[in-house]
Amino acid sequence: MSQPSPQAVAPRRNRAERTRRRILEAAGHCFASSGYAKTTVEAIAARAGVSKGIVYHHYRGKEQILERVLEETISEWSSVSQLDEELARGGAVLEAIAQVHRNAVAFGRDNPMARALLQFDQDVLLTLAGSREVREAAERHRGDLVRELRNGIESGELREDLDPELCASILRVHYMGLIDQLLDPSGIEVTDELIEAGLDLLFHGMAARAPRPVDGA
Q: pTM of the predicted model, to two decimals?
């Protein structure tokens, strides 16, 4: 029996991947609106526009679906928060840090899967916060901040009296504060203007001060 050609297999793989993605997006919306405990595979299938059997063809059940939703969203969120990539484009340390900050907050605000993730019930959020992937991503981000803040101090871009560890913690607190606001629809709206104002306040105090002119100069 002849094997199907690569040209015939590729479209099927693409269709399967699109179906899996549609199921995950549907699950994210269902988990966010109904809570994980109350969401059924039938509800996910209906939202995705597929049969229950198709869902089980791709996933063992809603537990595995939740795992994939969390994994994919965290992976995408991390990919827009890579400080090394911003620095590779050239430019100043503070601007690279600011751009990563903008990217990460905007992803949480604008990406449908991220918004759904932030609206999950507390049990899921607590599980997420304690997951190895989230801890590693947070530690990696903080480590990158400390390293580049040190580089900025050594290059003269940043004040020489700054504590890189403390500044990295302050930046993380500011970032997490904006993410917390996304959890509260009745709270402060996280607009681009709010993000920029916060960064301006933080970075104005971190930038190296120009030397004062000598009297009579």
A: 0.71
